[in-house]
Predict the 3D structure of the following.
Amino acid sequence: MTTTDVLLLCGMAFTAGLVDSIVGGGGLIQVPALFILLPHMPVATLLGTNKFSSVAGTAAAAGQYVRRVSLDWRAILPAIVPAVLFSLLGAQTVSSMNAETLRPIVPVLLIAVAVYTFVKKELGTSHRPWLSRKAQLWVSLVVGAALGFYDGFFGPGQGSFLVFAYVGFFGFSFVVASASAKVINTATNLAAMLFFAATGHIYYAAAIPMSLCNILGSVVGARLAIARGSRFVRTLFLGVVLAVIARSVF
């Protein structure tokens, strides 16, 4: 790996952290960069390196949000355990099934999310939770389990689906939804990263500098989202969803 490769990976990690901290989708930037610049590395090592960098940035973004945004932990904490457990279950399931069967479904779901968000102009622009405490608990458990399994089994768009779930199902603003998603993503990414670390699938020469740049990008992105508000996050959310749709179709 050359110095130029490191600089390019760090640049991509910064950009990925910035985008991911606001609306998710950082993997669209960071994973392809790893595959292009480190083509001779095993796939598992590239994915492990991505997770090492991602979990650092996600945790940094979550920290920024927790200090600056009022979060409803009753809607977040119940989702964490099922998200982690079902993510591991999804990863185990994919070893005996073909995850590619989901590929045609993902763009359809994302198109539906994009159209619904575009049509509902006020969706997520203000924070108006509408679920009772009991309903919030059960919806949180289901969202954590469903999207955790999807993340482990297939993955693309999981961050955007999670943000949309908190906006659409809970009535959260886009800023609070992004903050909630980052807390859950920190837990799921950490579980995946520990698995890759235990199996020796992290290339630390790239992972460490990338993680530092991802942290920097995530801090900048989280502060930008908080400063600019939910309408800004909503616009970026639509852009990222369209990018994920284009990637999936391609």
